[in-house]
User: Fold this.
Amino acid sequence: MASPHLEHIPASYKDPAGFVYKKDGVIYRQINTIAQKDFDLLLESGLYKDLVSRNHLIRHEAVPLSKKATDDAYAVVKPEQITFISYPYEWSFSQLKDAALLTLEVQKIALEYGMSLKDASAYNVQFRNNKPILIDTLSFETYNQGKPWVAYRQFCQHFLAPLALAAYIDLRFLPLQRQYLDGYPLDFVSRLLPRRTLLNLGLSMHIHAHAKSQSHFADKKTSTTKSVSISLTALRGILENLTNTVGNLKLPRSSSEWGDYYDVTNYTETSFHNKKKLIEQFVKKTMPSTVLDLGANTGEFSRAAAQYATFVISTDYDLPAVEKNYALAKKNQEDNILPLVLDVTNPSSAQGWAGAEREGFFSRGSFDMILALALIHHLVITFNLPLKSVSEFLAQQTTYLIIEFVPKEDSQVQKLLQNREDIFPDYHTEGFEKAFMKNFKIIKKEPVLQSKRTLYLFKSL
Assistant:
């Protein structure tokens, strides 16, 4: 009988080798007796130590077997915690690409120690210190000479397929991974990709030929299909080709309103720096642990908050903006900023098996502070959300809120109202404060210099 203090993690149920669970609020991973041989080899071969030293695999601490969740436990470990769990459909192109290259590198290293990845799910990768890291200790199995890479198809579906679609067709295929939790079907991708990709050796082999092979063998009886044998040298060649194929995928040069936001905004240099200084002051006053920046664009103000916050989740729905944000975070080695793709009007919801396999965005963590800068006018005027509703939602998510009120006199609001009727009689400073003070109290209120905007620091009631 399970302990009343034990909570199974819904995403961890498919692998008979073990599972992840919470006990008394602490996350553990149980290794079942069926996985004893592979788990022992992972530790005794030196593979675990090597991968951890390279920051490729999450570190864990062995704990007493008394922490087990079920009687078939061989061992129990306590993995290092990830500050915020994110999913592939919330990553930029370069984040998914870095996760793919990490997975291939881990497989190459594993082969040197007589082991192999038995799965290559993108959901086995998380971002720690703004770098991808494998979190599934039980992904490894003993390598048997001549055996093909069992995770090859999964790698192509989870990584190569969405990257190719984004690079050759449209970046917006990335968030559509929400619809395909087990990766894009290769026949679907093969039909979508332009014919010129047939001339790309890697895509021709790993997407087009792979899809054709799957279709050919789909209706064959198991007894009539021959098991394929592949040498270690050939396997390494395939991994190298996959690495080159992924590495050579590039996004076409493009821009968006938000990717170039700071080049076209109506801020003067004075107002921009004044706003940045006010945010630093507000964050310093509260010293939050985790900050969520909604509508962060390329993350300029996330970086201001990160000076006094432990961790900042910097989100925007615009993919080029998030791509640029991640590139800046890598370039500046910013370990406490995590750029993610998020549409606050349609956030990642709970989905998958039993509607719980992948948690909704706002269920995965708590936020001490939310930044909502240059956002309220879009929520109210573009999406017709009542001020009262926005206030209630934000109060449910955070203790402190830094929000920028952008009045109708602002040129950005006038642009939104240019081709539609003004049906927002309460959208003014008094109406904004009335709606928000039902759920918050004002800690500080400061005008942004050389603008018509006002910055508020609220605390929830």
